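Allow me, if you will, to draw on your knowledge of protein folds for a short while. The matter concerns a single protein, recorded as an amino acid sequence and a row of backbone structure tokens. Kindly check, if you would, that the fold set down in the tokens agrees with what the sequence suggests. You will find the record immediately after this paragraph.
***
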Amino acid sequence: MSTPALIRGYEVVIGIETHAQLSTQSKIFSGSPTRFGAEPNTQASVVDLALPGTLPVMNRGAVERAICFGLAVDARVAKQSIFARKNYFYPDLPKGYQISQYETPVVQGGHIDFFIGDEPRRVNLTRAHLEEDAGKSLHEDYAGQTGIDLNRAGTPLLEIVTEPDMRSSVEAAEYAKALHSLVVWLGICDGNMQEGSFRCDANVSVRKPGEPLGTRREIKNLNSFKFLQQAIDYEIQWQIDLIEDGGTVQQATVLFNPDSGETRAMRSKEDAHDYRYFPDPDLPPLVISDDWVGQVREAMPELPRAMAERFQRDYALPPYDASMMTQSKAMAAFFEAAAKACGAPKLVANWLMGEVSRRLNAQAAEIDQSPVDPQALALLIGRIVDSTVSNNGARQIFDAMWQGDPRPVDELIESLGLRQMNDSGELDRIVDEVIAANQKSVDEYRAGKDKAFNALVGQVMKASRGKANPGQVNETLKRKLG
């Protein structure tokens, strides 16, 4: 790994805490549904409301999802973990405490691997623990008052905590994307950031190289990768400015305003002792047997890293390409279907990372929304491989297909006049004419100027109206120019 770049002479240190809402149909300690968008307070049972005499009952499905995550990140799944009460008072927390895990979490250690460009990165995890979500305070449309919606209270969360391993906002955003892809791949979280199913808190500090860790500030509830990166960038500059002006960073919880692009302090940051953690007397230790772990392992899908290794082995993809092809199950399925159909996996990967991704990103769409299916893309790539069309011609055909032209690839090639010239006699004639008409470029090439050769290639392609095979053009020119 390369040495992280300094910002104005400071090293940035970032850790991220992510709350992933688990995909169970009911809450972590009650049978209330977790469906999003219901009328306020229609999905809150007597347990969620913390009425006297009610007791929590553990949701088996939430535990299985935590086990699944632990296995996927090479963590240790604790055979026995403890639930604790995290005490604080807020209007949307009916009990006056949150049931969480503190000293003994269910998932311990682990790591997330990803790429920045084609450079591999690894972020180590401290833990992942189960807990319940709080309710929600609603400040709009209440005539200056605050409404409390307890539908979300008790929704199962897996809080995933990293070591302070990240050194830039770009690295933090790429880590968050990789984690998001993994939990969605596993099916343990739907990943809907707009609905709050996946939200990040970023702990940011700065220090001079070699000095102890600086005082961190925690940016709360970031629900987009773009906002995560923007918030960290602003916070870095704010902390450096404060230190350079002679100030001292105070530990605090801050919020990011995407409209202004700024962070602002919400409250002083609490430490663990402020929450007065103690084991929850209503919940026994969570005991996970080896058999249970084995059952979860058997039910897991092929993991992205295992699939990426298989793509490297079976399709000879470079590690970066294999990683990109396994960003989602839909992308992996599209790639594999197209690669098998045309027998040119590297070209398929190039097209998916290039032309296809560019158009999908422009439309904020996913691969399963592509108007060009794997078989059609495979046929087009096959026509590049057999020299029927050039790369440029293929892009023109692909554009027509993307715009909804229903005609088959071969029909589009003929109708658009994009079939490459494969007649060697005709190509020889064109090359001879170009050489005769461009003596200056010929002399410059023979004098060792490579750019002159490129100019001659361009003239041949122009004379052939783009139909000449570029590889054949290069070979023919070099042969005739000696």
About this structure: The two ends are 46 Å apart (CA to CA). The first helix runs from residue 60 to 72. Residues 11-294 form one domain. The longest strand covers residues 119-132.
